[in-house]
Design goal:
Distance between the termini: 38 Å
Number of helices: 6
Shape: globular
Order of helices and strands: HEHEHEEEEEHEHEEHEEEEEEE
CATH class: Alpha Beta
Length: 349
């Protein structure tokens, strides 16, 4: 009986410690989601959106558009809510046609209560897809933003249009942070042949990052996006210089929490029955000290639920995409979203 009482007391103390630990931190979720071709149904003569029109090959009607918005909102509304009920404080987006589709997404029934605000610039991409950020003003307030041009050339030195990098500086609960939202050039034409385009985008980021850390080596920087490269690819590991081991990250350097998951076979999208981890969120050294007063990095996650996964057909086990060629699949995206949990100590007084 005495042993049982001692054990019960120990369990009570352990439970109190866990609860106390949870109560002493404030959580913020920073995420990224490639929403796969979120177009409206209105023809824009300046871009190649013909597929995504009611009369196009995909028969992209208003019904399909609103169903896609609903399904995306279903995903976004659940990202990180087991860590923070408000979900993402900041969410980077890729493959949005324009500001209007982001407004429609933010105004869906599942998301409108969060009052998401938008940072977006039209990019020169020939397909008409942009990157953007939505943010919850309860947590984050932008103070500056700009679109960073990515110089891209074909093999014959002909200029080629691609997505800009979105740079946003702001206050995460009164703490200055810097966020880069990316969608680097694809691997069309082969991984090796297309690598210079992704290296060019990485250099644009690195140049801006270096200008920030030259002033403040402890600056809190987030580089997120669909990089169309894996964590160990040269554009990410060499040009950006990100490391998968915190011990190797110097002051002002970049830590990539996705290296180990990638090497363990985890991914965010699949191709030819092989997983890639293109959707990364990389952070600067300023986030790594867990003893600081501000927000620090706690953990990284891929948000993938069974209902977001294709259960049959040639894409079985893959993220449940919107279309299989021109057949509407009532899916979400061909990418899984990723997110980071950031924690901040809260005074017990």
């Amino acid at each position: 009986m005495k042993k049982k009482l001692v054990l019960l007391a120990a369990l009570c103390l352990t439970s109190f410690y866990v609860l106390a630990q949870k109560a002493s931190y404030q959580a913020a979720i920073i995420g990224f989601y490639n929403v796969e071709n979120l177009f409206d149904t209105i023809d824009d003569p300046l871009i190649s959106d013909e597929e995504f029109l009611p009369g196009g090959t995909k028969r992209y009607t208003s019904e399909v558009y609103h169903d896609k918005l609903y399904r995306l909102s279903e995903v976004i509304s659940q990202i990180g809510t087991d860590k923070s009920p408000d979900g993402p404080a900041i969410l980077g987006l890729a493959e949005v046609e324009n500001r209007a589709v982001i407004v429609d997404l933010a105004n869906t029934e599942k998301l409108r209560g969060r009052n998401y605000q938008i940072v977006h610039y039209d990019s020169p991409d020939s397909r008409g897809i942009d990157v953007a950020m939505i943010y919850n003003p309860k947590y984050f307030v932008p103070t500056y933003s700009e679109a960073l041009f990515v110089p891209l050339f074909d093999a014959d030195s002909t200029p080629r249009k691609t997505r800009d990098v979105l740079y946003v500086a702001g206050k995460l609960v009164n703490e200055t942070i810097h966020v880069f939202v990316n969608h680097w050039p694809s691997r069309r034409g082969g991984e090796e042949a297309s690598a210079p385009g992704r290296a060019a985008a990485a250099r644009v980021c690195k140049h801006k990052i270096d200008s920030i850390t030259a002033i403040n080596p402890d600056a809190k920087i987030v580089v997120m996006g669909d990089l169309n490269d894996d964590p160990v690819s040269p554009s990410v590991a060499v040009v950006l210089g990100s490391k998968g081991d915190k011990a190797q990250v110097g002051k002002g350097g970049l830590y990539n929490p996705w290296v180990v998951p990638y090497r363990n076979g985890t991914g965010t999208l699949a191709y030819n029955d092989s997983w890639n981890l293109f959707d990364q969120i990389i952070i600067s050294s300023g986030w790594l000290d867990k003893n600081q007063d501000g927000y620090f990095f706690a953990e990284s996650y891929i948000f993938s639920k069974p209902w977001m996964t294709q259960t049959s057909g040639r894409y079985k086990g893959y993220p449940k995409r919107t279309y299989d060629f021109d057949k509407y699949m009532s899916g979400y995206s061909d990418h899984f979203p990723t997110y980071l949990l950031m924690l901040k100590k809260v005074s017990s007084n």
